[in-house]
Amino acid sequence: MSFFGDSIKMKDPVVSIIVPVYNVEKYIYDCVNSLIAQKFDDIEIILVDDGSTDTSGDICDKYAQKDSRIKVIHQTNGHQGKARNAGIRIARGKWITFVDSDDWVSPEFVKKMYEKAISSEADIVMCDYCRAKSKGTRIKCKSHIDKIFLNTDGIDLRTSTIQPTRKSGFCMVVCWNKLFRADLAKRYLYFPENIAFEDSAPVLRCLVMAEKITVVNEKLYFYRINNASSTTRAKDKRRFDIIKIQRIILNDFETYDFGKFKPFCITFMIKDIIKHFRAIDDTLKAEFYRQMQEILCEMDAKGYLKFAEFKYRFKAWLILHTNYHLTLIIAKL
């Protein structure tokens, strides 16, 4: 209490770090310890326990008791989209970033991203990342940052005549290697809930609504690739969720002006859906093929396929005009 009996208002943090947590008791220590160790102190860490059935929620509470910067939300399970939305709603920072609870970050992750955001007056800052099996493993990985962002102070993707290539697609559409201006995130970065692959639609929406995007060309984020709960398993029926996500993107094309960024988005969508068709278990392939044809037909009816890079426009045309067995061959090309 102040001298006059009024509550002292706590100063808002500069950066809010949102961490969706679900059954990661094996990994969460690496994640949260890396956030506590940030060389940028003016942060809040929002741990959203998404209905964990292991000890993850208890671990979150113990961290909150030790560090006043940590806040914990407990909620019923709704997948990462629901958890991230809950974090966004209570985030007090001027900037928002996301870290998955089975991953970890460099001690300079927030510091370097924030400094770049301020120096370049950007709306979104993106960093490079490494794929890793475990913390402490010696890691070698290629660069994922598209060359159009190098040697420039920032880009508006709606108007830029030079656009990212499809090879940088994954790096572009995930939310966890980015720092978002909070007012932009709170307006456009609403994630679909109870669904997998929730990143791409809201991130693409946010990227196109940003006036300036820049990068820190350093590997500041470490993406764990051996989590048993990953949706990369062939038999996981959640792969069908990618169809729902693509319909959200198509709807966004009608709502927002994607400008010169649309060809990248269409190419990414075609490449992504073929990737999932190729990877899904053989017992699920026929049904996935049917739904893949439906979404490509919708793209074609709206006149979007013409925007895609020629290689993927041609693949889409072949899938629409050939049969299942030929599509199996086309997907491997």
Q: In DSSP terms, counting alpha (H) and pi (I) runs of 4 or more, how many helices?
A: 12
Radius of gyration: 21 Å
Poorly predicted parts: 1-8
- Protein structure class: alpha/beta
Let me know the number of strands.
8
- The SSE order reads EHEHEHEEHEHEHHEHHHHH
Q: Which geometry do the CA atoms define?
A: globular
Name the average pLDDT.
91
* Sheet with the most strands, sense and barrel status: 8 strands, mixed
State the separation between the terminal residues, measured CA to CA.
68 Å
Strand content: 15-25%
Query: How is the largest sheet built, in terms of strand order?
Result: 3-2-1-4-7-6-8-5
Helix content: 40-55%
List keywords for this structure.
333 residues, alpha/beta, 12 helices, globular
Structure report:
Helices cover 41% and strands 16% of the residues. It starts with 14 loop residues before the first strand and ends with a helix. The protein has an eight-stranded mixed β-sheet, with helices on both faces. The chain is of the alpha/beta class and 333 residues long. It is globular and about 60 Å long. Strand 1, helix 1 and strand 2 form a beta-alpha-beta unit.
Please provide a brief summary of the model.
41% of the residues lie in helices and 16% in strands. The chain is built from 12 helices and 8 strands.
